[in-house]
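Students often ask why inverse folding is considered easier than folding. One informal answer: many sequences map to the same fold, so there is more than one right answer. In these notes we will look at a single instance of the problem. The structure comes first.
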């Protein structure tokens, strides 16, 4: 057995996990910062970094205790070093380097988005590769072709606002709470997803890239009036807001599904996997699963606990890197870009 301690501090979740052989999650501790950022309507980097400093030691200790593991039982230390908020990443990277040195364990540097791409495989009896992976989160919306754990090819990515970011901004426009994704889904459940025909930006017939800034602006002008940014919300009823939320969510889901099916067509791959924070959205999960069933494609979504940022997916990804000899040095740096 190969057991890895994973550390994740790329944004606003402080997480540590112990995972054996890439799929057996012995512990996965996540300390959310949503309450700290809610009044600002988004993540404040300085607050996120401070919270990581305050919480990481206890989170790591709890992960080791829940897993009933000591340093001698570990085979490696894994940490997210890219992409993300640099200040937040540095906290995790520094801790991981210290533990690697103190405990004499190999250090594995993990790409956060690649970990999301592999997260749907956690807990499966058989790996689902090759597959097209749709990753939908607050900072990233991407499509990958995964031939295997060490063969991940990016096919497309967001050119501006990611889907999760658009959810947060539209929630703010509608006067809803942060984080916006769950709020949009909750309010939209009582609305008509066909009430408003918001734009579906495809960026060309063969493009696998994403753009959600246009639909965000369309919602803004629908609420306040063309070219206006204030003044319209108080004129809307709760039913109006529900219809806007439902129609916005449907437009985003339509784009995500169309792009994913285009990737399937272009590559000939017959399995689709879904990961990332927005993958916890039940409407998206159901719609993509139904589309895959209609097209006779296999479908696997990451379990909800592995959708938001978490260290289990970091340790799971690191297992394959360790087997491949992809070891970092204590000179490891953090990077905002992937």
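Output (designed amino acids):
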């Amino acid at each position: 057995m190969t057991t890895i301690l994973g550390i994740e501090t790329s944004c606003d979740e402080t997480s540590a996990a112990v995972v054996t052989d890439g799929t057996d999650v012995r512990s996965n501790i996540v300390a959310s910062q949503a309450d700290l950022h809610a009044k600002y309507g988004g993540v404040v980097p300085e607050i996120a970094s401070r919270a990581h400093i305050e919480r990481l030691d206890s989170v790591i200790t709890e992960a080791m205790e829940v897993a009933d593991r000591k340093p001698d039982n570990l085979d490696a230390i894994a940490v997210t070093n890219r992409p993300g908020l640099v200040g937040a990443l540095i906290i995790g990277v520094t801790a991981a380097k210290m533990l690697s040195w103190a405990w004499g364990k190999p250090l594995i540097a993990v790409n956060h988005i690649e970990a999301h791409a592999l997260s749907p495989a956690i807990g499966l009896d058989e790996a689902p590769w090759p597959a097209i992976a749709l990753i939908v989160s607050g900072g990233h919306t991407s499509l990958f072709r995964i031939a295997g754990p060490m063969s991940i090819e990016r096919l497309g990515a967001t050119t501006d606002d990611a889907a999760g970011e658009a959810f947060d901004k539209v929630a703010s426009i509608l006067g809803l709470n942060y984080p916006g994704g769950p709020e949009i889904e909750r309010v939209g459940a009582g609305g008509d997803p066909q009430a408003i025909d918001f734009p579906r930006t495809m960026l060309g017939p063969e493009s696998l890239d994403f753009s959600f800034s246009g639909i965000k602006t369309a919602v803004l002008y629908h609420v306040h009036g063309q070219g206006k940014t204030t003044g319209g919300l108080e004129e809307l009823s709760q039913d109006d807001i529900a219809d806007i939320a439902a129609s916005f969510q449907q437009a985003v889901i339509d784009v995500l599904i169309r792009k994913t099916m285009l990737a399937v067509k272009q590559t000939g791959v017959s399995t689709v996997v879904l990961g990332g924070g927005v993958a916890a959205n039940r409407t998206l999960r159901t719609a993509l699963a139904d589309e895959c069933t209609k097209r006779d494609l296999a479908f696997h979504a990451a379990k909800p606990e592995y959708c938001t940022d978490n260290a289990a997916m970091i340790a799971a990804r690191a297992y394959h890197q360790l087997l491949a000899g992809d070891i970092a040095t204590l000179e490891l740096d953090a990077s905002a870009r992937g």
